[in-house]
Specification:
Elements (H helix, E strand, L loop, with lengths): L10 E4 L6 H6 L5 E6 L3 H4 L2 H11 L3 E5 L8 H14 L3 E6 L1 H13 L7 H4 L11 E5 L11 E6 L4 E6 L7 E4 L9 H19 L7 H23 L4 H14 L14 H13 L3 H17 L4 H11 L8 H19 L15 H8 L13 H11 L1
Parallel strand pairs: 1-8, 2-3, 2-4, 4-5, 5-8
Antiparallel strand pairs: 6-7
The protein binds 5,6-dihydroxy-NADP and zinc ion.
Organism: Paenibacillus whitsoniae
InterPro entries: ADH_Fe/GldA, ADH_Fe_C, ADH_Fe_CS, BDH-like
Protein name: Iron-containing alcohol dehydrogenase
Length: 388
Amino acid sequence: MQSFLQYNPTKLWFGLGQIERLQQELGTPGKRVLLVYGGGSIKQNGVYDAVMEQLEWMKAHVVELSGVESNPRLTTVQKGIALCREEGIELILAVGGGSVIDCAKAISVGVYYEGDVWDIITRKAEATRALPLGTVLTLAATGSEMNNISVITHWDKNEKRGWSSPLAYPAFSILDPMYTTTVPLDQTIYGIVDMMSHVLEQYFHRTDNAPMIDRYMEATLLTIIEAAPKLIADLQSYELRETIMYAGTMAFNGQLSCGTDGGDWASHQIEHGLSAVYDIPHGGGLAVLFPNWMQHCAEEDPSRMAKLAKAVFAIQPEGKTEAEIAFEGIRRLRDFWNSLGAPSRLADFQINDSRIEELVHKSFMKPSVGQYKIMTRESVRDILTRSL
Ligand code: NZQ
Ligand code: ZN
């Protein structure tokens, strides 16, 4: 194992009715709160009313920023920063999925930065101070509710950039699985693919002797694989939503990288380029790209893919080469996602090869891509071509 620090300051309130904890988290009455939400799902499913009831009880002064886009945009972050300054906001409350939370994280650090917050997002400047942030999660997918990462799109530049800061952890997150029972089928599938990708990308590390973490990851994947098909057939099930919601948070809150080199996030980097150009759902892009990334890597070194195939997809190794085991495992993963209804080709999003060079270029927004396998431009081009 490698030496590591395990640190996660986010207080997680999980379970039915936990919204009542919001009063306690607000602390003092009369707080000035920026309520950040998306395109209106929270008004249709009652979550907005439940949150407002708590805020009213605490006599909070509420300012609203609505309309946060899926794949949230810099312009909305800037709007939020201006509102915080004008209104003397003391706490940001994000109510929604990963997009809303990521937008709120960028607002929270941007308020105290004199220049353009894009500098922090592109890592040209460090965040030095942040407004406290609380979240009420309504979609199980990204893990943003318990990590310090945020992904923001500069639409005019077609750039989607991930950034992180020790200041970007939410102070508290409230997770009531009941709030996720209204997530539509497609977003439920994308969320499942996203959280599985987070585990898988961490799984592709090259650190020796990390059996505990490897088994945590295998257990997380097995749990999702068991629950997901049942949930797809029964979107209202509280018990299945509960399992998936907890899995999504644990998949990407730092614990699955303890002691390893952190894994390989090339697929995420390539996907961010894809959704920067085509504005497609993040989990949909991953469903297409990730098995092709695995295939590309396994052709060179199948060892880790074979381990996964045996541990998670119960592939019997007798009489097979390591490569055969690996390829069978990759096929099973692809079949599993397809069986849920996830897309398998870029053509499913009407994407062809016309902008492939631009997509290769967008994947290299960071100096290097990949760690389990360092990507060259040719490798990224190969993965994208296999995905068409
Ligand atoms: O906008 P509203 O009306 O709220 O509707 C949303 C949106 O249309 C809807 N939705 C959310 N909760 C719902 C609901 N509909 C009905 N009932 C509910 N309870 O779902 C749609 C998608 O929401 P969004 O927040 O965009 O999805 P997700 O949570 O998948 O977030 C995606 C964003 O997170 C980034 C992605 O790149 C993308 O920009 N990521 C963030 C990460 C992080 N911060 O750690 C890591 C991830 O890898 C990812 O890159
Ligand atoms: Zn993701």
